[in-house]
Amino acid sequence: MNKNHFTKLAVSVLGRWAGRGGAGEASPPPGGASGAVRPGPAAPPPGPGRRGSGPAAPPFSVCSQKVHVLPQTVLYIADAETFSGHEECHEQKKARKRNSKETAIALEKLLPKRCQVLGLVTPGIVVTPMGSSSNQPQEIEEGEAGFALLFPKIDGVKIHTFHFSKDLKNRVFDESKFAEAGLKNNPDLRVVLLFGYNSWKSGATRFLHQIVNPLNEKSIILAGGQVESFTSLTSEKNPVRWRLPPGDACGVVGLAFSGPQIQSATVLLDQDVADERTAEAAMQRLKAANIPERNTIGFMFACVGRGYRHYKTKRNMEADAFRKFFPNVPLFGFFGHGEIGCDRIVTGNFVLRECNDIKDDLLHGYTTVMTLIHLGSTKANQA
Question: Where does the record place the region Disordered (predicted)?
Fold first, then answer.
């Protein structure tokens, strides 16, 4: 996918994915995060017979027509094929890396300058298509796909990005960096989504333990997984995009959600969950958390070894089970190289924790972690 192609696709992501109606009549979608956009799978650029056919409008003007609030934080995830293009020779590795960077920059240019952005590349995608929150979530294990979640400013909720990279000269992680990132000494911290990159590198797993273990507190939901790479990272304190690490570096990026109104829950689907009955039993555990479903987002972080192969060629098993119990909660996520999470509930007055400080209780393989994040009932600030 060349840069020009992606620019058109990005307009589709941030424009056509945002609305429910036809061009110029998009409506705020019900449910989900207040004012947040619920995108769908990557669509081809507008063409003859498609809505929006004709000359492309300037990217940001398209966004302003379709998105009802300015995004303050954006999480986008795309499969590796979308970001790497279709290079056929291994000797083109540098060209693929350059193409990924250009693709990410093209997308970032469509967003407000002070918008926090985190972009990830993963082997597969989980996405709820545009339109209604009751649309069927899709597990897309092959082919090009992606989504962008746009979070506006929400009263009582603070979302921020973070990044910890492994120091090749020091085997011990400096835990003072947690406080600098707002992950310690923060009584309102409720949810931390963590994404390890280059997990195959030497020392990557040990480094991930050094990040996860100190954050494993009973009042915080930890969830996420291992991705192939990250392509965008800006923060409130540093609106200039991070210089992406060299290919041999490893580390952790993520999003932290703080606010007393936030409620969240996670469940772990282990290797024994291998059919419809056991998948639905796991969703029943998540349902029992009684997390409000309005202004709530679902995340699914699954191993590449699951999906239709794990369920004996039955596709979309876990996404279908989620929709059965949460028909009005949009589901997003990815297939990756390892999962982070356990059974845990964090609400205003109740905490249930079924994993302890033992490091292996949070890092898994061949599993799926399902997460609900409720952002409260306040309306998004549209200023």
Answer: 20-58
> Does residue 199 form part of some domain?
yes
Residue 244 belongs to domain spanning = 158-257
Q: Give the count of domains, the chain.
A: 3
Query: Which residues does residue 369 pair with via DSSP β-bridges, in sequence order?
Result: 268, 301
Which residue shows structure tokens 């669509």?
Answer: 43
313: left (phi over 0), alpha (psi -120 to 50) or beta: left
- Per residue in 154-193, pLDDT (tens digit) is 999 999 999 998 877 777 888 899 999 999 999 999 999 9
Task: Report whether 369 contacts 266 (CB < 8 A).
Answer: yes
Pairing of strands 138-140, 363-364: unpaired
Q: How far is the C-alpha of 247 from the C-alpha of 249, rounded, in Å?
A: 6
Residues 90-115: pLDDT tens digits? 555 554 555 677 888 888 888 888 89
Residue by residue, DSSP assigns 323-367 as HHH-TTS-EEEEEES-EE--SEEE-SS-EEE---S-GGGTEESS-
In a domain, 267, yes or no: yes
Give the DSSP letter of residue 107. Answer: H
Query: Has residue 45 been placed in a domain?
Result: yes
Confidence class of residue 238 from pLDDT cuts 50, 70 and 90?
low
Going by the DSSP 8-state scheme, the letter that residue 37 receives in this structure is B
